[in-house]
Amino acid sequence: METASPAAPADPAAGAPDWRAILDRLAQRHSCRDFDGSKIDREILAEIVRDGTEAPSSCNLQNWHFIIVTDQERKLRARDISGGNLHFADCSALIFLCFQKGWTHGNFSIAQSVAGAAYHMILSAHLRGFQCIWNAGIGDHGQLRDLLGLPPIFEVQAALAIGRAKPTAPDMKAPRRPFAEVHSWQRFERPAICRYPVKPAKAYPFYRIRNDDNPFAEWNPARWSWDQIGDFRGYAVWAKSPLAGVYVSRRQGAATEVELDLLPDLAPGARLLEVMPWGGTYSVALRQRLDREVELHLAELSEHNLSFILERFRQEALATDRVQASLMRGGILPYPDASMDGVVLAQILEHCPEPEKLLDETRRVLKPGGVLVVSARNLWSRYGWRWARVESRAQIPNQGPFRPIPAPRLRGWLKARFEIDAEIGIGRETVEDAAVLRGRGRFFCRLYAARCVRG
Predict the structure, then answer these.
(1) Is the pLDDT of residue 11 over 90?
(2) What does the pLDDT average to over 24-38?
């Protein structure tokens, strides 16, 4: 008697829509911070939020609540409370993601549930042709609680901004890590380049680590490899969109122009190199002040930084035909000997695992008579005191680990390699102040800066 062969497992995709096309379309979604301010119908916004409630919910309690804000005055207030989310004022709607505290709290199950609903809403908005951005940095929760009339037992977790992008908004998706880096089979495995250093400890208690207080954060770049620093900076730079004016430091204030005033006029055809520009604040300032025919070269540790900066140039309406971007590996500048007329090292030596090696490389690529403009945050200053006692207790910033350098030490490094043509201190205070000091006072300012010449 013959027995029937067991039936093949059913293909779950059989008879389904073109799931690959759907997933490919969802993968095209990217964040937007540049909205046109147009309105979206109330019914459509409600449908987007309703779509979010189809997401999984811990214990099926659905202890989430979503507050849709379209009133312009309330959006403006939310923008002010956030401190830096200018797009809150121009989006069509803000959806504040809230939950009742208590149930499955320890494993963040309710927070995970809200996050799942938020992403469901983002995809719903994307499929409808709208743009969206998920904002975790929303400012003081107490002020938001007052604005939203939120009871004390509820928490506001984040906000979604939804709207239509301006025609000029960057049409770029932030880079994704290679898949091989972020998954493994059966046990944890992750490449060293994306396992960032921390201070050694027997354990790292979750609740002991906060953004403003992380006792395990490793701020010393000498403990990092060049590749790890490049990897960190290359993804973190996309914490913002490459719009005009991003990454301009409040601490820096007017000091950028003071630093760059040390740069002499360069003749048409000259070649100027900026090293490790990251978000491009100095790059933009340089391109704006240089002669149109001066070549600006950018050397960075990650191609993601360079793509960000070049898009920012376009957003700033700056020409890029005389801008050359190159990758540097292991602190080695990718240029021939004596090939540059000028080099700018603007507050980056304190980020380097081997700062003296980079100074040697700078001397190598400079032509005889070529000029170096260099600056660094100074440990021997009020800012340095604050960094050591307050700032360095927090998690390291998006631009990567750094340690301010005592001004006399940096001066000694420069004297060993160059002729110092001019030197100044910038800023007596910890933020914004751009007062210029010479004489002995230059060693005690927030920034130490110098113009040097290769002999």
Answers:
(1) no
(2) 96
What does DSSP say about strands 295-300 and 323-327: parallel, antiparallel, or unpaired? Answer: parallel
- Pick from 145, 163, 181: which residue ends a domain? 163
**Distance between start and end Cα atoms, the chain:** 97
Q: Distances from the Cα of 276 to the Cαs of 214, 223, 363, in angstroms?
A: 26, 18, 16
Q: Which of 209-218, 221-230, 427-436 is the least confident region?
A: 427-436
User: Does 248 reside within a domain?
Assistant: no
Average pLDDT over residues 195-215: 95
Residue 12 burial (10 A CB sphere; 0-12, 13-18, 19+): exposed
Residue at which a domain ends, from 163, 182, 215: 163
- CA 101/CA 244 separation, integer angstroms: 39
Instruction: Look at the pTM and tell me if it is higher than 0.90.
Output: yes
Place of tokens 């940095």: 137
Tokens 């996309």 map to which residue? 238
Q: How many domains does the chain have?
A: 2
Q: How far apart are CA 139 and CA 23, in angstroms?
A: 33
Residue 158 lies in a domain: yes
Q: What is the pLDDT of residue 1?
A: 46
Distance CA 77, CA 148 (A): 11
Q: Give the tens place of pLDDT for each residue, 122-154.
A: 999 999 999 999 999 999 999 999 999 999 999
Taking only the tens place, the pLDDT of each residue in 231-284 is 999 999 999 999 999 998 766 778 999 999 999 999 999 999 999 999 999 999
In order of 87, 108, 240, the CA distances from 236 in angstroms are 19, 24, 8
Task: Check whether 295 has a pLDDT greater than 90.
Answer: yes
CATH of the domain at 61: 3.40.109.10
Q: What average pLDDT does the segment 198-207 reach?
A: 95
Domain enclosing residue 305, as ranges? 255-453
Asked whether residue 9 is assigned to any structural domain, the reply reads: no
CB 248 within 8 A of CB 280: no
